[in-house]
Amino acid sequence: MLDWQDVDTVMLDMDGTLLDLHYDNHFWLTHLPQRYAQTHGLNLQEAEEQLVKQIDSRRGTLEWYCLNFWSRELQLDIPAVLREIEDRIALRPQTQAFLEALRQMEKHVLLVTNAHPDGLAHKLEITGIDRWMDGIISSHELNHAKESTHFWSALREYVEFEPDRTLFVDDNEHVLAAARDYGIGHLVCIRQPDSRGPLRDITDFPAIHHFEEILAL
């Protein structure tokens, strides 16, 4: 159980934490390979193999999250292709109630995401979650992905917070490890970031399925 008296600042990831990761997974694993194959005259298996090789080589870096980079690399208008399936963008269960509860408790709530500014703006346009935020920070503004400890020191120069009185919720264990190494005091991992994916066994961090597990909703 989390003692909310020990928390002043709440930092929240977006994709897989507040929003259903199904949209992103479907795009990168299903929709993009189809569009890439059509554009470059490949069969689907060839397209999937080429994309996996290119994408995995950048995993955990800022480029991995950069829509401009992938537009150039893949010779596709990635933001436009993302909009083709925007009907799949959705809040995870209890997200709105959780954000409203944080506002009632007068916590300082920050959206801290690796999402590229173009993708971020698109999702905020669809979901409106920015209305509950006191600040929104994309790692692209700080030139480091959240997986890097450099991100966290840069973040503290960008916005005021006390690490030991901060709760950070994310679905990425590598990101949470970097936050732990920096000294963030309260860490929580999401067990099922993709509503159509499995419940994951998280061993290194406290983990929840829904927000009611850390807040009475």
UniProtKB/TrEMBL annotation:
Q: Which InterPro entries does UniProt cross-reference here?
A: HAD-like_hydrolase_sf, HAD-like_sf, HAD-SF_hydro_IA, HAD_sf
Gene Ontology CC terms:
cytosol
Molecular function terms, GO-annotated: phosphoglycolate phosphatase activity
TM spans (from-to): none
Q: Which domain of life is it from?
A: Bacteria
Please name the Gene3D superfamilies in this protein's record: HAD superfamily/HAD-like
Q: Which GO terms describe its biological process?
A: DNA repair
Keywords linked to the UniProt accession: Hydrolase
Q: Looking at the Swiss-Prot or TrEMBL record, what is one Pfam family this protein matches?
A: Hydrolase
Name this protein carries in UniProt: Putative hydrolase of the HAD superfamily
Q: What is the lineage of its organism?
A: Bacteria, Pseudomonadati, Pseudomonadota, Gammaproteobacteria, Cellvibrionales
